């Protein structure tokens, strides 16, 4: 390992996030400070509906306070628990945000979100065989809107910059690679 932790202290905590400051020593002996955001595991779900004529995905549109704007992305989130069953988390987030349930959930991979500053696993699931039901949103998701768009429209939105969520774009790229190799 090229960096050794000398000491670590938590500097902030809330129900969703922990921030710590680590004193580190690099391989060359230089010391420094590293700020790390620790978050519990999350999931991102690609809700894919296939008809004989076309393919559709479901997106959620919501206000993202950190960047001060409303954006569309795949359903995603976590439960503020370190130990979760990944598929249970993905199914729960899908139903909570969209009202959708899935016959089949396929784990495509586990990614790290922004690992230059954050320690958070992101389970990427493909959801198929979708049925619409009632959502069960958290209070902070009160303004969330669900949109069903064709895959062509979705990909155009990625290319024209309408969709800027890196996790959504990464999940879609992963799905496309997975599908091509099946």
UniProtKB/TrEMBL annotation:
Reactions catalysed according to its record: GDP-alpha-D-mannose + H2O = alpha-D-mannose 1-phosphate + GMP + 2 H(+)
Keywords attached to this entry: Hydrolase
InterPro entries: NUDIX_hydrolase-like_dom_sf, NUDIX_hydrolase_dom
Domain Nudix hydrolase: 38-171
Keyword Hydrolase: yes
An annotated Gene Ontology molecular function: hydrolase activity
Cofactors, names only: Mg(2+)
Family membership noted in the UniProt record: Belongs to the Nudix hydrolase family. NudK subfamily.
Record's protein name: GDP-mannose pyrophosphatase
Organism: Edaphobacter acidisoli
